[in-house]
Amino acid sequence: MADLRTDYTDAVWTGKKKYVIENNGDGTSSITDVTVYDNYEKSFFGASDANAINEAINAKLDKVILKDITIQSSSWNEDSDLFKAPLSIEDLTAKTKVDINTTAEIVKTMMENGIYAIYIENDNGTAKAVAIGNKPAENITLSVSLMEVQ
Q: What angle do CA 91, 96, 102 make, to 5 degrees?
């Protein structure tokens, strides 16, 4: 994938913008901008730019992997003021970003059990769930998104 442009500038002009209005001879007119601009070439954003951005976004979206993982209540271990549980996540690498896709049901269950937050650490390709608050007393199934980052 080619790099996206990052050299856009605003078009700059001095004084008022200038236009020429021409009679087309059929009852209509054409308006032509004759203002003298600086940086005009780098100020244009067109369809090719939008397409390049959309292609880059689509390429990233195609690389997102969705998975459901279940954390067994017996796998949590206390570590300082936190509770940690080792996870086995297929497709996880050292450069995988792991996001939890939560639901109202999961948040409600966590709140009822005194769990303030759960997040996932990726330590060079080894995942751990981390709970803040109480130790989870029930098995928890989470939907996660995996995406490779640079």
A: 90
pLDDT cut 90: percent of the chain above it:
55
Helix/strand/coil (H/E/C) assignment for every residue in 18-57: CEEEEECCCCCEEEEECCCEECCCCCCCCHHHHHHHHHHH
pLDDT band at 41 (very low <50, low <70, confident <90, very high): confident
Predicted TM-score (pTM) of the model is 0.60
Total of domains in the chain: 2
Q: Which of 147, 124, 149 is nearest to 62 (CA)?
A: 147
* pLDDT for residue 1 is more than 60: no
Q: Is 54 in the same domain as 102?
A: no
